[in-house]
Amino acid sequence: MWVIRITCRSGHQRSPGVNQSLASQKRSDNVENQDNMDEDTDMSKVMGFSSFGGTKKKAMTFDLDSILEQTKKTAQERSRKVFEEREAARGSDSSDEDRMPPPPPRPRPGPQPSTSAASQKSAPDSDSDDSDSSDDEMIGPPLPPPHKTDAGKDEEFIGPPLPPRDSDEDSDDDEEEDPLDKRIPASHEITLEHGNKTVSALALDPSGSRLITGGYDYDIRFWDFAAMDASLQSFRTIQPCECHNIRSLAYTITGDMILIAAGNSQAKVFDRDGFEVLECSKGDQYLQDMAKTKGHVASLNSACWHPRTKGLFLTCSDDSTVRIWDVESEGKKHKTAFKARSQQGRKTGVTSGGFSRDGKLIVGGCEDGSIQIWDANLNVHTKYLQRTAHQNGAGITCVSFSYDNRALLSRGGDDTMKLWDIRSFKRPLNVATKLQCFYPMTDCTFSPDDKMVVTGTQVKKGEGNGKLVFLDRETFRTVDEIELEDTGVVRCLWHYRLNQIIVGCSNGKAKVFYDPNKSHKGAKQCVVKTKRSMKQVETVVHEQILTPHALPIFRENRRGRMAWKQLVKDRSDPLRSHRPDLPVSGAGAGGRLGATGSTLSSYISRTIAPNIIDDSNPRESILRHAKEAEENPVYLGHVYKITQPDPKLAEKTLEQEIDEQEAKEKDTTPAWKKLKLA
User: Fold this and answer.
1) Cβ(279)–Cβ(266) below 8 Å
2) Where are the alpha helices (DSSP H) in 446-504?
3) Distance between the two ends of the chain, CA-based, in angstroms?
4) CA pair distance 391, 406, nearest whole angstrom
5) N or C: at which end does the chain have fewer Cβ atoms within 10 angstroms?
6) Are 521 and 512 in contact (CB under 8 A)?
7) What is the model's pLDDT at position 98?
8) d(C-alpha 421, C-alpha 430), whole Å
């Protein structure tokens, strides 16, 4: 057991042998009580206190400077050993590098007793020396070693070794080094049969498990990649907007609701399973101010959900407005309306629209070729405006923000696609031309890594193949083209989580492009499943054999007295014999009027409008006015004044002409033919 002496600054010293000094004084004063003290001494030995006050021992002192210096040297030596081991391991094989031994444990900091003779000799004997040394000593745990400032020692590594490099990080670096054409997941494809008409809308939920397609056939089909097998059949089909083609589909950020925009003026929201949640209100078309109406008054063109706020969605229409709706209002009235205006201040239809990636900006591509961007919180004036983005009247089929929220991609009906920087919105960064576009919803989008842009081209039927075009974002150089035989690309979608490309075609099919090594889930889940075989149920059919004339309808009626009586009885029954109604005599009865009744209609039929039959020849009736028409050409003169100044009327009837023709044929018939006919 170590006994530590605590020295006060006043110079007084407290010793643990105080009780022993008192006992020695008592022995000097009371010599006669020596025997009693011996007994006490024996008792103290028995109790374990034999050496408590026998000799005077000094408290152990510590030199903090020497302790810190020793700790510092130990840490440096062990760090140097670790550094030398690491240098030797770097020169060896990579396997040895992965299995680098950990450094030895660090010395545990704390006070350690000094065993040097110099420190023991330096122990003070007098109170003055103790007071002087107490000023230099530090009470408490030792200070940590100071940081190394030498240039050579800065490179030394202190601490546990770093973990080995992950193979996933290496693969990511390899992918970044791959050229752009190697990043396109298009080595494999599957085809989904939507229908016979154009697939005009596509949407994938955020998880990538469900796909919905809409087309010109008014139908929306639901596809579940996880539950679908190699037969590639949809599990549900709905027709939400009756006889209006589907123009836009979108999932919420949580994937629990679907937004549908069709050719009518009312957007609809359905749940994930295809049941209607709400329908937006229709506006009053007789109001001039479109912001005062409850909803759109013209057909919709596009719709999308807010990227951050659940329940908010956007719709744009040909009534020159972009409206923001909230699901909580149940579609009774829009929340905000943004009005698009042409350069002359007139209304211009908004053909495409959407939110920025952070939801702070709202963009609208207009029919006059302009791109108008509003602040989501201010609907009075546009924040960015480009009047001549595309050709006037061609319209803008799609506008899309990049993932970094700095660039805007626009696709126009003038067969061009342009990349814009919204910070300098005066001129485009890049322009691509000769991209044929025949559909008003042709898509364009960015790749998930923002390195490429994607769009589709269409061709007329029988004039070639459509293409899915990949362009470099920086230079707009064509990276790759995928041709689709006898069809055009209308919709395209590159899902960031699945790394798969979904394309809607003009022939009613949807194609999914993927790469088994680069893509995740999606189409990879269904292609590996075999088609479910139909369960054949064996049944035994017991057919009933019928003999001729076994049924009543095939039995022959027996001819005899009973049949004759029944026939006479049926003839007398007006219902069975279907006898017609007899003429009514008199004024009428039972709601029927008599032939010569006293009603007004019968009086008019008998007196005012008698039945006059004209048996005269119509040709003679017309020709009797020929002389008058020739003298006063009022009726035919103005009609035939230029084309037929001399009117010619038929002088013979059709029967007379036929008779004359037959007479001529008889005279011109040869004799051998007459004999043969005879």
Assistant:
1) yes
2) none
3) 161
4) 24
5) N
6) no
7) 46
8) 10
d(Cα 262, Cα 268) in Å, to the nearest integer?
A: 9
Segment 575-617, tens digit of pLDDT: 888 878 777 666 666 666 665 556 677 667 666 655 666 667 7
Conformation bin of residue 268: beta by default, left when phi > 0, alpha when psi is -120 to 50: beta
Residue carrying structure tokens 């770097």: 90
**Comparing C-alpha atoms, which of 432, 434, 357 is closest to residue 401?**
357
Checking if the pLDDT of 171 tops 70, the result is no
Residues 6+ apart with CB under 8 A from 387: 343, 368, 369, 370
Q: Torsion over CA of 422, 424, 428 and 430, rounded to 10 degrees? A: -90
pTM above 0.70, yes or no: no
Question: Distances from the Cα of 364 to the Cαs of 64, 116, 323, 342, 531, in angstroms?
Answer: 76, 87, 11, 12, 45
Q: What is the DSSP letter of 424?
A: B
Distances (CA, A) of 41 to 22, 25, 47, 54, 676: 14, 15, 10, 10, 178
**Cα(408)–Cα(399) distance, integer angstroms:** 7
CA of 230: how far to CAs of 191, 213, 221, 511, 522, in Å?
11, 18, 17, 14, 13
316: phi > 0 → left, psi -120 to 50 → alpha, else beta; which?
A: beta
Dihedral of alpha carbons 55, 56, 59, 61, sign: negative
How far is the C-alpha of 378 from the C-alpha of 357, rounded, in Å?
A: 18
User: Quick check: 614 and 621 in contact, CB under 8 A?
Assistant: no
| Residue appearing with tokens 């005269």 | 616
The bridge status of strand 489-495 relative to strand 500-505 is antiparallel
Helical H segments across 397-521, by residue range: none
**Domain 185-285+292-527 CATH assignment equals 2.130.10.10:** yes
For residues 306 and 312, give the distance between their C-alpha atoms in angstroms, rounded to a whole number: 5
**Tens digit of each residue's pLDDT (9 = 90 or more) over 392-431:** 888 899 999 999 999 999 999 999 999 999 988 989 999 9
The answer to whether 181 touches 163, Cβ cutoff 8 Å, is no
Q: Residue 437, exposed/middle/buried by CB under 10 A (0-12, 13-18, 19+)?
A: buried
Q: What is the largest CA-CA distance in the chain?
A: 198
CA distances from 373 to 306, 345, 361 (A): 15, 16, 7
Which tokens in the block code for residue 628? 């008058």
CB 397 within 8 A of CB 445: no
pLDDT in tens, 61-108: 777 888 888 888 898 888 888 888 888 887 764 444 444 444 444 444
Q: Helices then strands (H, E): number in the chain?
A: 15, 30
Rounded to whole angstroms, the Cα distance separating 510 from 221 reads 11
Gyration radius of the chain's alpha carbons? 53
Place of tokens 């972009």: 322
What are the angstrom distances between the C-alpha of 235 and each of 203, 218, 231?
Answer: 16, 17, 12
CA distance 291 to 311: 21
331 Rama sector, left if φ>0, alpha if ψ -120 to 50, beta otherwise: left
Count the residues in the chain: 678
Query: Both tokens of residue 113?
Result: 């007793």
Amino acid (one-letter) located at 112: Q
